[in-house]
Amino acid sequence: MQLANPELLRTDSFIAGQWQSADSRFSVINPATEQVIAQVAEADVDAAISAAVAAQREFANSTASERAAFLLRWHQLVLANLTDLAQILTAEAGKPLQEAQAEIRYAASFIEWFAAEALRVTGDVLATSVKGQRLLNLKQPVGVVAAITPWNFPAAMVTRKLAPAFAAGCAVVLKPSELTPLTALALAYLADQAGIPKGVLNVITSSDAATVGQALTRHPQIAKVTFTGSTAVGKLLMRQCADTVKRLSLELGGNAPAIVFADADLAVAVQAVMASKFRNAGQTCVCVNRILVEESIAAEFSALLQKAILHLVTGPGVTPSVQIGPLINAAAVAKVSQLVNDAVAAGASLSYQAELALELGYFYPPTLLENVTSAMRISQQEIFGPVATIQLFSTAEEALQLANDSQSGLAAYLFTKDTQRIWHFSEQLQVGMLGINGSAISQAHIPFGGIKSSGFGREGSSYGIEEYLQLKHLCWAN
Ligand code: SIN
After folding, report:
1. Which of 311, 329, 323 is nearest to 368 (CA)?
2. Are residues 248 and 268 in the same domain?
3. Which mutation among 160, 448, 454 tests ligand 1's pocket best, with the greatest number of atoms within 8 A of CB?
4. What is the pLDDT of residue 478?
5. How far apart are the C-alpha atoms of 454 and 278, rounded to whole Å?
6. Residues 24-52: what's their mean pLDDT?
7. What confidence tens digit (pLDDT) does each residue in 134-156 have?
8. Angle of helix 156-168 relative to helix 97-118, nearest 10 degrees?
9. d(CA 399, CA 425)
10. Is there a catalytic annotation at residue 251?
C-alpha cells in the first residue's frame, strides 16, 4: 500500500486521545491476497470506557457550533485523504477501489450532514392550563455511546454512527470489526487532527468481539449501544443490554426483494437490480436478495440480466477494471457455495456462473440462479455474495405475499409504471425503505433502517440525531 500520508496507517488502539500499543496483537488479512497486512493491538476496553465517561460531561456542555465546527473540519480532512482512505479500505475489505472511493464519499456525507444537524436540535415550549406555570421539553445527549460496526462498510457505518453522536454531544467507544479495523483507525486519526477533544472518541481494536460486546453492553455508564451487523448478534446484544436498560439502535440483516412487473422499464430494472445486487460483491444489508419477476416477462428479463452479469469483471479490488472483489473471508465463500449448492440440489437451475482463474483470494464467481422457490434456504437468508436468484410470480397479490414472506424488513425495490400499484405496494410492503423504479436508497439524508427482525432506529436524515438525544421535561411552577 503506497499512501501519500503514511500516518493514516495506524495499528494501535486510540484511547483518551492517545495511540495505545499492546504486546498482544491480531492479524488483519487482505481478502484478495490472503496476506497479513497489519498486526493490530488488542485494546484495553475498560480504559476506553473510562476515558469516554470522563470526557462526557464537558463534551455535553460544549456548544452546538463548536461540535459542528469540529465535524466540518473532520469532513474536510476525510475528503482531502480520500485516495489513501480508499486504499486502506480496499486492502482490508477487498472492495474495488472505485467503490471504496464512493464509500469514503458516502462516509464523509454523514459527517457533513450531521455538522448541520448539530445546529438544529431544538426543544419545545408547551401550552399550559395552570396560570403561571411553564412547560418545556429539553433535548439532551443520551450520554456515552458504544458503537459496534461491521466489516462490509468499514468507513460509512463508522461515520453514520459517530457523526450524529458527536453532533448531539455524546462521547463514543467504537468497536470496529476485527476484520477491518484499519479504516476506522485512519478515521480516528483524522478526527484527532480535526481537534476532537480527548476521550470523546475511543477506538477499541480487538479480535474478541464477544468479550468486548459483553463489556460494552453490561457497563452501567454506557447509555446507548448502536450496532450494525447480523440479526443473531443483534438479538444477543439486545438481551445483554436488558439489565442496564440501555437505549439501543439495531441495523440488522435484510432479505430485500426486487419485484419486477411486466409493465416496468426493463432496462431500468436490470440496471438498478445489478447496482444493488452486486454492490460490494453482494455483501450489503440492502442488496437485492430475491428477484421476483412477473411470469410473462421471465425470459426477456433473465436474458437481459444474464447479459449484464457476464460483463462483470472479478478480481483484486486494486485492479482498475474490477467490479467484483473478493468476499471477506474463506467462511463467507463456503457459506455462499453451500447456499448455491443447496438451491441447485432442491431444483434451482444454474443459468450462469463466471469462470474465475484466480489462484489466491476469497473469490466467488458472479452467478445467476433461476427457478428458485421460497422454500430454498437461499431465499430465506441473506446471500451476502454475488449470486442473483430469480423467482416467478403470476399476480400482484402473489408478489406481495412472497415479498413479505420473510422475518427481515429492511428494504425492497419495486419496478412498475402503474401508480395505483406503486401506492398499494408502498403501503403494504413490510420494510423500512422502498426503492421505486430505482435502487439508490443509500444517502445521508434518507432515514436508513428496518422493521421486523431487521432492527429498529434510523440512521442518517433528520431522524438520525434523535437516536442520540433524550427528552427531559421541565414543569416550572414559577
Ligand atoms: C449496510 O449494508 O448495512 C449498509 C449499506 C448502506 O448504507 O447502503
Report:
1. 311
2. no
3. 448
4. 78
5. 20
6. 98
7. 999 999 999 999 999 999 999 99
8. 10
9. 10
10. yes
Q: By the 8 A CB rule, do 436 and 426 touch?
A: yes
Q: What is the C-alpha to C-alpha distance for residues 58 and 47, in angstroms, rounded to an integer?
A: 18
Which residue is catalytic, options 170, 241, 285, 287? 285
How many structural domains are present in the chain? Answer: 2
Same-domain status, 128 and 263: no
pLDDT for res 399: 98
Whole-number Å distance between alpha carbons of 431 and 454 = 9
Same domain, 168 and 38: yes
Confidence check: pLDDT of 248 > 90? yes
* Closest-lying ligand 1 atom to the alpha carbon of residue 283: 2
- What three-state secondary structure class fits 176? coil
If you take atom 1 of ligand 1, which residue's CA is the nearest one?
285
Of 465, 412, 448, the C-alpha closest to 156 is 448
Q: Which residues of 194-214 are buried (b: 16+ CB within 10 A; e: fewer)?
A: bebbebbbbbbbbbeeeebbe
Q: For residues 454 and 450, what is the distance between their CA atoms, to the nearest angstrom?
A: 5
- Distance, CA of 366 to CA of 453 (rounded, Å): 28
- DSSP string of 263-280? TS-HHHHHHHHHHHHTGG
CATH number of the domain that 179 lies in?
3.40.605.10
Determine, yes or no, domain membership for 448: no
Note if 285 is an active site residue. yes
Per-residue pLDDT averaged across 379-390, rounded? 98
Looking at ligand 1, which atom is closest to the CA of residue 150? 3
Residue 205: inside a domain: yes
> Are 53 and 223 in contact, with CB atoms under 8 Å apart?
no
Note whether 330 and 99 are within 8 A (CB): no
| Rounded Cα gap, residues 434 and 229, in angstroms | 20
230 and 325 co-located in one domain: no
Residues 243 and 338 in one domain: no
CATH classification at residue 432: 3.40.309.10
pLDDT at 200 over 90: yes
For residues 205 and 271, membership in a common domain is answered with no
Which residues 6+ apart lie within 8 Å of 420 measured at CB? none
Do both 174 and 221 map to the same domain?
Answer: yes
Structural domain that includes position 13: 6-252+454-477
Distance of alpha carbon 207 from its chain centroid, rounded? 20
Q: For residues 174 and 212, state if they share a domain.
A: yes
Which among 3, 16, 34 has a CA at the least distance from the CA of 358? 34
- What CA–CA distance (Å, rounded) separates 287 from 277? 5
pLDDT tier for residue 259 given thresholds of 50, 70 and 90: very high
Reported pTM: 0.97
Which residues have C-beta within 8 Å of that of residue 239, sequence separation ≥ 6?
none
